[in-house]
Amino acid sequence: MQNRAKKQAYLHELFGFDTPVKGFEDPIPVFAEKTAFVPDVNPDFVFDKDMVGRVLRSYGARENIMLTGEKGTGKTTFVQQFCARLNIPLMTICGGPGLDESYLMGGKTIEASSVKSVDGLISYCLRWGINILIDEIAAIKPSVLVSINDVLNGDQTITLKHHGLDPSKSPVDLVDQEGSLSITRHKAFRLFACDNTGGKVNKDPRYAGVMVQNTAVRSRFTCFRMGFMHPALELKALTNIVGEKLPVSLAKQMIELAMRVRAAFEIGEMYDTLSFRELKRWASKSLVYGSLEDEIIPGAERKLIPDVHNGFVDAVYTGMEESDQDMVRQLFELVFNTTLSLPNEYKNTSTEFLKLLDSEELNWDFAA
């Protein structure tokens, strides 16, 4: 990662904007080539211009950066694509209660009958100037994150706690020995984190399993809240991903339904919201479940008619709480001017079968 060549480039061109980002009107130095661990560029990802400028300023100031917000607002993808556009290497850690300090900062292992010190993901990246993304950071035990406060604090020299001290070595010899007691922070190292709650007190049962983080840990991050995209940007992102087979008018209706669900969630009328991730899945499944229109002109290419009903049921509806299902059926009818058509598993209930039995209308020869 040392001595990588750089080039001058316009920030707005790298991130796909038509006009310059405020404060970055002139070219900036960026890495010229992609190297190991640099994420692949996703040309369909749509950035918010203001967010790019603010995050880049924090990045330039060597701050720890945390992105918070609802599910599916693009927190993780933003970090990955931010690094991809700037040719910055990135490693990702997915948070969980099983992570301990040795996973992050290393420990000792046995190799060829000898004790050997090895790095964890963070200590390795500290040495080599690779960015780290801790995804779902609030799922990590608070005591583990407290133990890396020296990393979060921006200390230039990080002491590794797993090393024993050889009393026969002088301090100079101790620093020089292989698997040094300390790490000098690489100037290119940055730490990102993503989380729904930001490690704050949260009684929302949707985020069961996350933990309240020590306020000293939270205070060491510059936090940015990721909201849902502007509808026009969401339309652009959705059509970029699924292509021209999805009519723009239909895509707008899908986004309108998502907006209505999100608005109902914000005022407490729904238990959960509808993410862009679910919106993409709905659009994709609508095309997969779609059918070709009846042939009107012999020899003419028939258009695909997306199946928004079955697509929505499998991509979004079945995963919802029952109370949300009641609400979303009303919203679906409002937006599409038709009742949501539910598949057989919702119609063939025991109650319906019993009604048919009592009325002597149950078809016992159905399976024949």
From TrEMBL:
Q: Where is the signal peptide?
A: none
Query: Which keywords describe this protein according to UniProt?
Result: ATP-binding, Nucleotide-binding
State the GO CC annotations.
nucleus; preribosome, large subunit precursor
**GO MF entry, a single one:** ATP binding
Instruction: List each copy of the ATPase dynein-related AAA domain by range.
Output: 64-203
Biological-process GO terms, alphabetical: ribosomal large subunit assembly; ribosomal large subunit export from nucleus
Indicate what this protein is called per its UniProt record. Answer: ATPase dynein-related AAA domain-containing protein
